[in-house]
Amino acid sequence: MAAGEKGQQIDLGSLSTQQLSQVKKQLDDEVQHLSNSYQNLRAAQQKFRDCVLTIKQGVAESVRDKPLLVPLTSSLYVPGKLSDTSHVVVDVGTGFYVEKTTEDAQKFYNGKVEELGTNIKELENIVNGKANNLRVVEEVLRQKVLAGPQGGQGGGEGG
């Protein structure tokens, strides 16, 4: 038995090898998609951690008035100087920027790191559940294939 999408139970033994192959493919696709989402969340979490580190190290009093490069685009920089080490402009999402103190900016980014951490744990549980379902389907499919023709295509007689 494997849990279905909405909590229903499916008797995998009653499915044909073709149906099991379709279920396996669907689960493979879901696990792949969820794994990609997991990696994207991890990357976003690391980006926010980097923001905290940059605020701590790059917006310190020791770098005030020293020359630096300011990004205008991902590949275009202009020379500049850091004149204010107590305030930064934070991208709060969807193209909105807010001026915050460095302390508030760090709190903001640490909150994002924690929020993503919670989402990552939840997604990890979902991925593990889907992966377990996939292993069960693969095992039943393997047993049906090894059992030969009576195990599969007709669906009901060889059981």
UniProtKB/TrEMBL annotation:
Q: Does the entry feature the keyword Chaperone, yes or no?
A: yes
Q: Which Gene3D superfamilies match?
A: 1.10.287.370
Give any Gene Ontology cellular component.
Answer: prefoldin complex
**Which GO terms of the molecular function aspect are on file?**
unfolded protein binding
An example Gene Ontology biological process: RNA polymerase I assembly
Domain of life per record: Eukaryota
Q: Which UniProt keywords apply?
A: Chaperone
Family, per entry: Belongs to the prefoldin subunit alpha family.
- Output this protein's name: Subunit of tubulin prefoldin
User: What lineage does the source organism belong to?
Assistant: Eukaryota, Fungi, Dikarya, Ascomycota, Pezizomycotina
Gene behind the chain: GIM5_1
